[in-house]
Amino acid sequence: GNLDNPNYDITFITADYKITKAKLTIKIHDISIERGEPIEIDQHGYTIISGRVVSNDNLNISLYKDPTGTAIGEYAIIGTYDNANYEITFIDGVFTIRKLNAVININSTHIVKKYDGKPISIAATSSSSQPIEVYIGDEKVENNFIEPGNYYLTLKSLGTDEYNAPAPLDITLTILKDTLTVENLGIDIVLQSEEGYDPDYIVELERNEKDEPIISSALTRSQKLIRSYKIVVVDSQSNEKITTGTSTLKIKVPEALSGNDTAKIIVFDDNTNNYSYKTAIIDNSGYITVDITNASSIAFVQESSSNILIYIIIGIVSLIIVVTVMIFALRKRR
Q: In 3D, which of 210, 226, 215 has the Cα closest to residue 267?
């Protein structure tokens, strides 16, 4: 100290002026990655939770993972600094290398297959390379399905040391019927389609009355109705009548036609009220096979033998007349 007053005799005892280091507490941020992702440490990934930094001071903080390595697990993120004016306490962060999240790979979650007599399996894989397990509800089932139907399935797989188990995947499997069959009224039919039939579809067979108007209107005078049937495809769940579609029909011919080589049928379409004639070969088992579209009824018909005889006589008479006219014409030329 200094004295600037002659009236005083002052003795100063000196004191120390001490500047201590600034104390800081720094929390290092946690980092989490999946195995295989780049290991990167954000050098600004920390927060000062106590103390303050004097303006423009550089703490020269460095952060690093300890120990080094890429194995799945938890590692410390440690901090160092280089500034003699500070005393810094670091709260270590945690660097986590997680297992990979496995996924179930499948082309579609809505699978439609037509039954062909062979077991149908779900083609799916897990990125963890573990087998796929198939469940219906909580019950584990074999990955082989041999009956047409609608299946609501859940696919699961296990985890490994490197992979977490994938999330369960819900899928639907629809196995279409390849044929629809029915046996009724002493006759049986088989419908077959390239596309297959919804597993809920069934076919019903009813005999038409002989005086059914639409049947009668299609017959010519020379034709005799042997038997006619109504063929109806129905959704068994909704009772909805299915009126469209192309099928191959295999049906046993009535007994009255069993000795013939061919059978003539009339195919009716209720949607348009149209009909068409078809002639089919009767096989050794007594069945015919024909392609039908939107068919609602079919009728077996036979040409009347009396009418056939009349046509033959008319044909012979016509031939005689033609020959006579030609002979007469030749004589006149002479």
A: 215
Q: What is the pLDDT of residues 8-43, one digit of tens each?
A: 888 888 888 898 999 999 999 999 999 999 999 999
pTM: 0.72
Report d(CA 143, CA 124) in Å as an integer: 10
In whole angstroms, give the CA distance from residue 175 to residue 196. 9
More confident residue, 71 or 270: 71
Q: What is the pLDDT of residues 224-279, one digit of tens each?
A: 899 899 898 999 999 998 888 888 999 999 888 888 999 999 998 877 778 889 99
8 A C-beta contact, residue 190 and residue 204 = no
The whole-angstrom separation of Cα 180 and Cα 113 is: 16
Distances from the Cα of 164 to the Cαs of 75, 99, 128, 159, in angstroms? 20, 6, 8, 5
State the distance between the two ends of the chain, measured CA to CA, in whole angstroms: 173
Task: Give φ, ψ of 293 to 5 degrees.
Answer: -130, 125
Reported as a single tens digit per residue, the pLDDT across 158-168 is: 999 999 999 99
Question: What's the confidence (pLDDT) of residue 237?
Answer: 93
